[in-house]
Amino acid sequence: MIGVNLASATSNNTPIVQKETSTATFLTITPTIQNAQITQQQVQPYGIKGFLVKQAIKIIKAAIDKGGDVLNYILKWFDEDTAKYFNNNKSKVVEALDDLESWIDDANDLAQSTIKTKLNSLLIEARVPGTYSLLIADAIARTITWLIL
């Protein structure tokens, strides 16, 4: 009877394959060591929450372009003046959201307040006046939290 069994060496994690051969009167076991390859999966620094935040940002960018419930959720936080500015300057907001999405990869803290602060600075860099940037950042940070919870 010929078969193959898999065992682990006691001193390390190298697998040992035992080849069994038998004759009518005795059994011979010959251990053979195989090269073990240990591979690590690539770990994303932002984990599951970061993944969800990035997905929420993508949904928000699509909503800014297409409309719908998510856009309505954002707009409900605005006064009339901010809503008008937002509708006339969507490209600046999307530009800041692109930068925010890239920033998520290196972020250690993904709390709503951190996202709001970072997005506010990115909106200002995208030439959104401070009068509107904080309100827009706050509404989008709230929407991200709403989408991932």
- The biggest beta sheet, please? 3 strands, antiparallel
**Topology, number of strands:** 3
How far apart, in Å, are the first and last alpha carbons?
Answer: 59 Å
Which spans have pLDDT < 50 for at least 5 consecutive residues?
Answer: 3-11, 40-46
| Outline | globular
Order of helices and strands: EEEHHHHHH
Helix content, binned percent: 55-70%
Integer count of domains: 2
Spatial ordering of strands, largest sheet: 1-2-3
Strand proportion: 5-15%
Spatial extent as radius of gyration: 28 Å
Q: Please, how many helices?
A: 6
What's the mean pLDDT score? 80
Alpha-beta classification? alpha+beta
Offer a few descriptive terms.
6 helices; globular; three-stranded antiparallel β-sheet; single chain; 14% strand; 2 domains; alpha+beta; 3 strands
Q: Could you give a short description of this structure?
A:
The chain is of the alpha+beta class. The protein has six helices and three strands, in the order βββαααααα. Helices cover 56% and strands 14% of the residues.
Per-chain topology:
Elements (H helix, E strand, L loop, with lengths): L2 E6 L6 E8 L4 E7 L13 H20 L2 H7 L4 H9 L1 H15 L7 H14 L4 H19 L1
Antiparallel strand pairs: 1-2, 2-3
Helix pairs in contact: 1-4, 1-6, 2-6, 4-5, 5-6
